[in-house]
Amino acid sequence: MVKKIQLDEQWYILATSSPADERRRVLKHNDLFALLDRFGDIQPIGMAEEGLYCGDTRFLSHHELLIDGVRPMFLNSTVKDDNGLLIVELMNPDLHVDGKNKIDKGLLHIFRAKLLWNNTCHEHVRIVNFGMEEINTCLSLEFGADYADIFEVRGFRRDKRGEFMPVQTGDSELLLGYRGRDNAVRKTRITFDPVPDHLNANRAEFKLALPPKGEAHVYATIRCEADSHEAPAASGADNYFSALTQSTAATGSLLNNRCKISTSNAMVNHWLDRSASDLVMLTSTLPEGDYPYAGVPWYSTTFGRDGILTARECLWIDPSLAKGVLTFLSATQATEEDASRDAEPGKILHEARRGELAALDEIPFRRYYGTVDATPLFVGLAGAYFERTGDLEFIRSIWPNIQRALHWIDHYGDSDGDGFVEYRRHSDTGLEQQGWKDSHDSIFHRDGEFAKAPIALCEVQGYVYEAKLRAARLAELLGDNALAQQLKDAAQLLKKNFNEAFWCEEIGTYAIALDGDKRQCAVSSSNAGHALWTGIASQEHAEKVADQLLSEDLFCGWGIRTISSKEVRYNPMAYHNGSVWPHDNALIAKGMAGYGFTGKAMRIFTGLFDTSQFVDQHRLPELFCGFCKRPGEGPTLYPVACSPQAWAAASVYYLLQACLGLSFDPEKSEIRFRHPQLPPFLETVEIKDLAIGGGTVDLRLQRYPNNVGINVVRKEGNAEVVVVA
Predict the structure, then answer these.
(1) Angle, to 10 degrees, between the axis of helix 458-477 and the axis of helix 527-534?
(2) Is the pLDDT reported for residue 230 higher than 80?
(3) Which terminus of the chain is more exposed, N or C, with fewer CB under 10 A?
């Protein structure tokens, strides 16, 4: 079970037992997601995290298929490649061994399929008799709903809860309900086809008489209703197959309308295909546009930092995602000071929640702004989006938001005027650490003492540096040359001051942070790699940082750890103090390649490729443990990591872009490759429908001993390919 944590740690996930099923299955469509075990069930055991969720509320906390009152035997389960459908195959165990109607194991095959579409979970169960005689059996489906807020599932304890409504049953429908303390009514409407032989408050039973080779079909439709006036959902085969057809068509359209990549390595292709499908699944359609939700189960909502970095990683294959992220974050940008939400004018959102706890302000995350890095990253993404697309009209439409973000950086972000952006929380309920490593214990001195706020993080200064340079370019294009020069001058001064204040000769890299007394936190960490990503590191220091990041104490073989194994707080099983994060590694690899260390970047690419071969469904999780790579063994998983996680899914694209030195010049309609290289496990890479301006190209890349050959297979419109040797 998940336990309550102390105030400093109250927003994190601590577990006193393992997840119910390590091979869990995930489905998602927009705001609805399901976390299931490999049987396709939802069981309130282990960490009790399984369920059907919508809008941060669990609408189904128990769902189990039984045959004659017992659980079937497992055969196989898989989520199809496009993430649209879960297929489970089961068979009966030995039944009634001491009584009448004995059924030997394996005579009944049970096929189970689930999909999510438009706030509804559709289920199809087919049971086939492969015996020589008629079999009479009972198939039952059990249900329960606790309407727990996602933060309750994570461990938050409440003094009071709302009221469960009386269960309503009809001939073929079960209606569960809950009125929250926010006065919102949430209902779970379950309909069946055919009509069950018996239906009560938590179970539907179907008595089946199956002749030899005969089969029966049962359909269940589970609809999440956040409004008491919602119309009842239809049920039956027509409804199920209609949803399947629509879901397949929609997913296929999204996958086909973006750049496609295939390689000579089948294992890399599995990784790429899973990443593409995960990004489509995690992306929700909002009024402002498409937005990648951070991860399932804990972060299935809009996160500023996660959305921005995910969009950056896959900007070259799908710039429309960045446009949706920028539009949404512009619309939700803070306009006033509110200490309870760590909000200040111009600041970019950290996360938004819509559950009961958020509505009641029992948690501060309804719209929460406690992140120091989302605001400069927002500006950086806007500049990168223009460099990819040349879409100046869109930039013009959000230019006031960019200006407000720049104002926040200089006035609120740098509250003491020392030229560095710092953070401190403004309420006891806010996040104590507000960088991407937001665990309460992630920022400390070399002796383990926690850093005192306000804290200036190493990587954040790089984000600000990049933001000002990119904003300067946009200002020039929009005719504000004075602002452009001011931003350029500020960026160069920041770079000079950063390299003086953050470089720590004692540890041979940049300090992870400066504390409130401007003392260096002399900790060797992956944060320093982000200084390469943004270009704020000097060339001399960059080479030392790159070498250290690949030393044994930081590079475990699978990837770069968050902190060095020599640090006093190092723990390979800690969330931010020794684990490996794929997105962190992808940013670092991109930074290394930018300084000319592409060979080093390929070592990171290789480590994460090896990881992808061991993890379930070739799906890179949010993070994994930082234990050293051992021959014949896979990486050690982190038990409460989100999987899928958007910025982990997108990391493969950034790794490939880093090695290829791929960039774009939309003004010249040029696709550029600077000193392209490919790792040893890739002989060829094919890229189709790569767009620039009004043109598209198909490319075939061939690895040679000292370079990469690039062949233009197809070209339409005004697009040119340029290779810088």
Answers:
(1) 20
(2) no
(3) C
Per-residue pLDDT at 60 exceeds 60: yes
Mean pLDDT of the 195-215 span: 97
Average pLDDT over residues 256-276: 95
- Domain boundaries, given as residue ranges, for the chain: 7-251, 670-724
Q: 635-669: per-residue pLDDT in tens?
A: 999 999 999 999 999 999 999 999 999 999 999 99
User: How far is residue 176's CA from residue 104's CA, in Å, rounded to a whole number?
Assistant: 36
Question: Would you state the structure tokens that stand for residue 662, as one six-digit string?
Answer: 């791929």
Q: Which of 536, 510, 534 is nearest to 522 (CA)?
A: 510
Q: Do 434 and 442 touch, CB atoms closer than 8 A?
A: no
Cβ partners under 8 Å of residue 175, min gap 6: 167, 168, 169, 187, 188, 189, 190
From CA 587, how far away is CA 530, in angstroms rounded? 7
| β-bridge partners, 174 | 169, 190
Cis amide bond preceding 319, omega within 30: no
505 token code pair: 């000769």
In the three-class reduction of DSSP (H, G, I as helix; E, B as strand; rest coil), residue 122 is classed as strand
- Sequence length of the chain is 725
Asked whether 143 and 202 are in contact (CB, 8 A), the reply is yes
Give the mean pLDDT of 553-568.
98
Instruction: Please check the confidence at residue 233 and state whether its pLDDT lies above 50.
Output: yes
Query: In this structure, are strands 283-286 and 720-724 parallel, antiparallel, or unpaired?
Result: unpaired
**Fold that domain 7-251 belongs to in CATH:** Beta-galactosidase; Chain A, domain 5 (2.70.98)
Compute the radius of gyration of the chain from its Cα atoms.
27
Question: Is residue 34 classed exposed, middle or buried when 0-12, 13-18 and 19+ CB atoms within 10 A define those classes?
Answer: buried
Please report the pLDDT score of residue 19 as a whole number. Answer: 61
Q: Can the peptide bond before residue 194 be classed as cis, meaning omega within 30 degrees of 0?
A: yes
Q: Count Cβ atoms below 10 Å from residue 359 Cβ, excluding itself.
A: 18
- Map tokens 């939802």 to a residue: 42
| Distance set, CA 404 to CA 254, 376, 423, 456, 516 (Å) | 33, 11, 18, 21, 26
- Residue 694 is predicted with a pLDDT of 86
**Helix 319-331 / helix 392-407 crossing angle, nearest 10 deg:** 50
Tell me, what's the pLDDT at 100? 79
Cis peptide bond upstream of 644, omega within 30:
yes
Q: What is the DSSP code string of 647-711?
A: HHHTHHHHHHHHHHTEEEETTTTEEEEES----TT-SEEEEEEEEETTEEEEEEEEE-SS-EEEE
CATH number of 670-724: 2.60.420
| pLDDT tens per residue, range 378-420 | 999 999 999 999 999 999 999 999 999 999 999 999 989 999 9
Between CA 469 and CA 484 the distance in angstroms is 8
Please state, in angstroms and rounded to a whole number, the distance separating the CA atoms of residues 376 and 379: 5
**Cβ pair 589, 604 in contact under 8 A:** yes
Q: Which amino acid is at 476?
A: E
